[in-house]
Design goal:
alpha+beta, two-stranded antiparallel ribbon, 1 helix
Length: about 70
């Protein structure tokens, strides 16, 4: 599951490839915002990303889009 996270005052978004279900990620985001705590997500390789909930600009949860290779006409 691809998760894109916008962080306030950051020029680039974070992109995390997670093995978790979309519903589980959404619950983690909601809980972090409700409790005014941190959002902790683990990627497919086991690396953790920790973001303060107060700095979240947006969270986009999706399946990811396969890119096309080569030239398009």
């Amino acid at each position: 599951m691809e998760v894109k996270i916008g962080v306030q005052h950051a020029a680039r978004e974070l992109v995390i490839d997670s093995d978790e279900k979309a519903e589980d990620i959404e619950k983690r985001v909601s809980d972090a915002i409700d409790k005014d705590s941190v959002l902790v997500l683990t990627d497919a390789k086991g690396r953790k990303t920790i973001i303060p909930a107060t700095k979240l600009a947006y969270v986009e949860i999706g399946g990811g889009v396969a890119g096309t290779v080569g030239f398009r006409s």
